[in-house]
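Journal club side-thread
Mid-discussion, someone asked how the predicted structure for our own chain would compare to the paper's figures. Pasting it here so we can look after the session.
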Amino acid sequence: MSGVYSVTVSNSTGCTGTANILVTVHTNPSATLSGTSTICSGGTITINAPAGAAAYSWTGPNGFTATGGPSLIRTNANSTMAGQYKVTVTNTGGCTASAARSVSVSAPTTAAVTPTTSTTSFCSNANVIFTATTVGTAYSWTGPGGFTASTAAISAPPVAGQYKVTVTLNTGCIATATRNASIISAPNAVITGNLNVCVGGTISLLASGGNSYNWSGPGGYTRIGNSVLRTGATTAMSGTYTVTVTGSGGCKATASVVVTVTACKNGEDAIAFETLFAYPNPTNNQTTITFTALKAEQMYLSVFAVDGREVAVLFDGMTRKKPLRVCV
């Protein structure tokens, strides 16, 4: 029906006039949609309309609008992007056509993380360790205290709270998981005792701070228990003595001291004490100090502050055959 339309007009006197007009009938645009109908969370929504139109106007869920080309692309899909998408296509003649397509967005899948339990306990002297075992192209961790990381495995400071990982799969979709960390106080391993011993004397060490104790020392020496008592000391017993202290929750800590066994001069003691213990150490209130002298003699035992001031005299007198305990 496109073409030139003419009209001839005649009046009562027989006069005529003619006018012409060109009419163009445009083809209606095509409005069909293809592309995404189902997508996983984190994926990319792609919807395509036929190319070649003059203008495209898009609407979608939750007030979404867009204008531009024949393709609509929305990245990082989530549940708020699910629903019906509609395009209105306008051609050069101003003719329009519309089409709609529904898109569903599935929830994120669950990422695999080790340890697999929802809550894991960690010792206060060790890091919080989690590993995302789901294979992905990118990893994003968040945690308490502003912790962030972009690796599959994390080793975070020992801070209690929830840790979350988002794994980007090779499809562009995401998988998430959360784990909770609880923190157990590690034991405070302390060793007291005599560190300088005469040959033939007694090495006496005492460990504190935990529930069980495992010792190692020179020449393959081992012992289970909170104390070390080695009589008839020899120079081969000199060296480093280390105790591994196990506390609540299986948390461990270690402490070491160096014991030196030397030959003492005739008639002269190399050390003032055979044993000297302070327990508990460190302390916030009261400590029991126990010492055993090598012989009955005048003894003076005092406490000094860190600035060198003598702050207390614990013992000033003759020693006796049995140990003397002083509480301060």
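Post-session note: The first strand starts at residue 3 and ends at 10.
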